[in-house]
Amino acid sequence: MAQENCPSLPIIDIDRYIHPTSLDERDAVIAEVREACQKFGFFQVKGHGVSQEAQKGLLQGLSNFFSLPKEDKVKLSFLQNPCRRGYEASGMTLREGDALPDSKEAFYIGREEPVVEPPGFHGPNVWPDLPQDQFKQPISEYYEQTSQLGKIIWEILLQGLGFSTTLMEGFTKRPIIMMKMIRYPSTGATLPGQFGVGAHNDFGGVTVLLQQPEREGLEVWHEESEDWLPVPSIEDVLVINCGDMIQKWSDGVYKSARHRVINKADLERFSCATFWHGDFSATNPLNPNDPNKDTVGQLLLRRFGSQFSLSKETLAAAH
What confidence tens digit (pLDDT) does each residue in 76-95 have? Predict the structure, then answer.
């Protein structure tokens, strides 16, 4: 548990950036985000432009889907999908150092595109057999709104490093934006010592996270205090964090922090993470002379390649 003297993640009102009344307001938000990313790698936002209607619609949609019979959900397994979209059952993720696999179950979507393009980061989603207004429609609306927010966060991060937002034109022509919807079982349905999600770093770009209000669980590792900081689940407040790719691209100015989820209540808990990475072929836009020429796509393949239907040649090219 985090100690009482540990710091807490700041809550930043980014409406001052989106709808500023002065340049000073925008500059203040940029400075606050920079400081939070340097210190924690995480921060919280309000005034973010993602409507409460969209948030509530998403949470209801997750309840509608995850309450389906297991046999209906496994038919949509993401391991049988060329774009790694669909359903992940509980117990499928075991991290090195964890005694037990994650208890969470999840569902993945990305931008809806008609044709699968190898190696599989662009293509169609799969959808459960539910009326559109019970799942596809609210999930798609929330995806679009958080996709827009992710782009705004990227703008702020770039300016915090002294770059112009025009730099985004070089790596956001057709960005990879994935969304992971998660259900955590209640504590009574979780084994002793089992995490909802074990400690890990996000590997890529910006993460926009919705936590179900008043369902606590997320904890962030804080190096200075050497402790886990609980991140409260507050209505209409979203959590933002930087992945490993941003840490590398920023030459370590922005942190990528370990985090984990332990459902604290004897109730199921929902959350949703939108991951905003950038173009498949993009390399470090902040430093064209970076000797590391890894593309966003290569980083994705290294992390998730075993979960795509890929040739040995494609996987080898990512390493």
Answer: 999 999 999 999 999 888 77
Flag whether 39 is in a domain.
yes
Looking up residue 247, the CATH number of its domain turns out to be 2.60.120.330
Asked if residues 155 and 165 have their Cβ atoms less than 8 Å apart, the reply is: yes
Give the range of the structural domain holding residue 121, as residue numbers without chain letter. 11-279+293-306
Q: Is residue 311 domain-resident?
A: no
pLDDT tens digits, 27-37: 999 999 999 99
Q: Is residue 263 included in any domain, yes or no? A: yes
Pairing relation of β-strands 176-184 and 269-278? antiparallel
Domain count of the fold of the chain: 1
- pTM of the entire predicted model: 0.93
Kindly indicate the confidence band of residue 306, based on its pLDDT and cuts at 50, 70 and 90: low
118 cis-preceded (ω within 30 degrees of 0):
no
